[in-house]
Write a structure and sequence with these properties.
Four copies of one chain form a homotetramer.
Chain A: H1 23-30, E1 38-40, E2 59-64, H2 66-70, E3 80-81, E4 83-89, E5 95-97, E6 102-103, E7 117-118, E8 122-123, E9 134-142, H3 143-147, E10 156-157, H4 159-169, E11 178-182, H5 185-189, E12 202-203, H6 205-213, E13 218-221, H7 238-247, E14 251-253, H8 258-263, E15 267-272, E16 282-284, E17 288-290
Parallel strand pairs in A: 9-11, 10-12, 11-13, 13-14
Antiparallel strand pairs in A: 1-17, 2-4, 5-14, 5-16, 7-8, 9-15, 15-17
Chain lengths: 291, 291, 291, 291
């Protein structure tokens, strides 16, 4: 039943809500640059980057390093170098979900069959390689500021919270916006010994749909799932199911939003670009806010 | 001997020539946006991404895919998902070299010891996690247009070529610029059965120094080493040695520049942001040109 | 249709023809030890281990090495160590195929559904972890000696060849035998610049069935597929299909048999033990001949 | 200082105490086979295989599986297959340490420099590829039986314990023996929620030296370090340092010994064969006891 954005940009479309961003939106977003301040919204990536239990983290291997030279490695022409390889889960740290990442009823966004994603080559449809760069108006909805502090785990952020936060930021959420929600979860986790992924503050489905109806292009947050955990009874990742699959809205997770919040500019030029892993279901990403 | 930029930004600096980009440069670069067109400059990443012989390519593994559901995997709450992991060399496809990537005489940029890069944790100094986002004025120097076609393998691009190309673009290369060189190598390789890394057109050292003296922030190209291969007799990666280590200029390799060249805009807003792998020596990257 | 060994050892059996080896066979095989000579039948494993085109080879990463100490790493209590990690395809070099590795008509050996092998956890049935150690009478059928030299690529080894080789070895192939076929392919490849996997000498289906009917436990060879390549017209891996899936006979590939052949002992104590990767479809293995 | 076995088998020797096993020992060990019972002494390998905190476990990726066929993958000639790749730390589960794994004073066994082990290619000396197969007399010293149950964490096993256990087994430990120590640690850990590697029962240095002086070939145990943890004050892995580096005795860790103990046969034919990873510092291994 729910195919809210299917066919809106043609039967073969694999970019979904990113189509809401046209050149006019980009021009207008470029005009938001004032101070020339550039902020990264990405977590560092390392074997210490937190992952849910029973999932593997990053492994980082040096193929050549300074120790090799200390131990006597040759230096033809004086040249010395270091290089490395990572074993990198694509949904780790600050990352974006491709439209092939989540679905229901065997159909992805725009009706492509889920069975088109297989072991060899990954997703034939809606892979992260189809997403392309994301440039547009970023909007920060700072729920921490609204609530006066990081939200306790399990706190539901509803549509009314989003409306209040938008009003406080002096922004009207609209077509093509890249909306970033600050819950304070990551900032709060940093103070703990061990990161828990079992519960977190986040959006309920109503809030997600409120944004989808405003035709946003991307939804991001500083928690790990955008949506509230635990889920509403009887549902599993309802915001993922509806926003990714039915509206074609990519989710951007694990953002670092404290410095952006401190800068006090509710709308800004946003730029991010996933690694175009062919058939990939997502990508670690280092988004930029240009103020 | 050669420590052209060492200490310029303090003894502890790990960002090198990126310090040439201040907020004024960012503001000014944002003003270059005209049509609102957004281009990616990145190659797709897959097991087919070419690598030099005897180096390993990417491996892409699906941890969950549509086939699992076709085979009967459970769907709690109707939720279906796919996820994946890559084994990813950090210097593959379109990527940027961190300042710890290349050095000589046991010292990295700014005098940090090469022995600070070890197996565990990688680079303690000048890792890719220290680089941060790159936003500024992009400048395209289209040598292919100058020469009337892709350059034959081994062709030297000298300072005079760069001057001519800048003039043709109506641009004066200056402080904080992100300079992109189009050699046509990648476009030419795409027409061959197998990519050769043994020889390619690229900059000679004089051309590299010409750019360094103009205080550019980043140097990129559409070949795999920026500099010409084979190297000048008796030298090995001379441009890497001098620009990265002595001037702190990161090299951006494997760019896709054909569409940017076709757009005919010599200066534009450039944005790119490496994965902040702690201690990493580089990062695959998906740079954006905003026209 | 073809279910030659299904249910022979019960509906839940996952060990197939290895059930042909009972304690009597082990006792008897131990009695074959004469000189006390021990030979390995395994290739070295490294990034240079040949693999078919478009398949990935081994990657070997050092997590700690002597270079780190040369560069100044701490040595608490004087202790120094080195450790490493491999990215290891399970069907590489000298390896054994688990009974879940090959099948047809959606059913594995003993009728288990092919759909029981999925991304998470691999094979629920007939994984390499169900195989256990292999100890019994090894029999070398030296076709190279029969033919007077390594067999040209594409040469068919038929049942008559096996009979002749068994006669020459003074052995009657029988229940529970671990039969090793020397084609000379690997020895011949070692003399070439690049290993070709497109064609090789090996068994035809008739020869494979001849062995299966003699109730052997394991079939091995010094080529990469045991069977002849190219396959008989209209067939793809017919020996794999029938022997693994219908007879439950594991295939042991990539053996090194020259020294064993030179030893001139046709029957010997054989011991090998796969890595018990839970749900794995095979394992690199280092078989031993004890003469 | 301590070079107890250096030069004993020549300046270029890389096999150490394994040289204690000659063909006479193998012949004699083969004569220990009675019932023809074959036991594996290996743990299963999977992402659940316990590892010390902050070390990475195994990752197991399917490159092709039954789900792909369920989703419609082609089956040329009817052939279906599954294959997989593991990211495999070489010191995990049941594994053997190569002689390059541990050292002190910058020198490995037989005086080879520690600096010969580097990022590229690993160990040039004493790598696991130099070890070869291990076949000989296995001896089980069952300390659990001696003490009447699994040893509490941190319990020291001394030389007197070994003597008593040998006596109970009716065995005199001697030249070329492969000695396996049962501490009960693994069996005890299996009953806990989470495996702790911070403390375990094991040998003290005196016990290790007692065995070394008896000219054993290999020392194994069912714990993760063979030696007691915590170490004696002021020492770090003293048994590793002395036995591996000074006596050339490989350590075999993480054995599964319960079934072997239950079988009640103190001496048996032992066979194991590491993966010959070129330059590797160890190997997961699946040892076999043949009773």
């Amino acid at each position: 039943m729910s195919r809210d954005a299917w066919n809106r940009w043609g039967e073969q479309d694999e970019r979904g809500a990113l189509n809401h961003i046209g050149s006019a939106q980009v021009q207008s977003a470029a005009g938001l640059v004032r101070s020339g301040t550039v902020l990264t919204l990405a977590q560092p990536l390392s074997p210490r980057t937190p992952v849910p239990r029973h999932r593997a983290g990053i492994q980082h291997f040096m193929g050549r390093d300074g120790g090799d030279y200390a131990a006597g490695a040759r230096k033809p022409g004086g040249f010395q170098f270091a290089e490395d390889t990572v074993v990198l889960p694509l949904h780790i740290g600050t990352h974006i979900d491709a439209l092939c990442h989540a679905w229901y009823d065997e159909a992805l966004y725009n009706g492509f069959p889920g069975s088109g994603t297989r072991s060899t080559g990954g997703a034939t449809r809606c892979g992260i390689d189809k997403m392309g760069p994301i440039v547009g108006r970023g909007v920060l909805l700072d729920i921490v500021a609204q609530r006066g502090g990081p939200l306790p785990d399990g706190t539901v952020i509803g549509a009314a919270d989003l409306e209040r936060a938008a009003k406080a930021a002096g922004v009207t959420v609209g077509t093509g916006d890249i909306v970033l929600i600050r819950t304070g979860w990551a900032e709060d986790q940093a103070r703990r010994d061990m990161v828990s992924f079992d519960t977190e503050p986040g959006l309920d489905l109503e809030a997600g749909l409120w944004l989808a109806e405003r035709e946003i292009a991307v939804l991001g947050a500083d928690n790990f799932a955008v949506e509230v955990v635990p889920f509403a009874p009887g549902t599993v990742f309802p915001v993922h199911q509806r926003l990714i699959r039915d509206f074609g809205i990519p989710l951007l997770e694990g953002l670092v939003l404290r410095d952006l919040a401190a800068a006090g500019q509710g709308a800004f030029l946003f730029a991010a670009s996933p690694l175009p892993v062919v058939g990939g279901t997502g990508s670690p990403i280092s988004p930029i806010a240009i103020l």
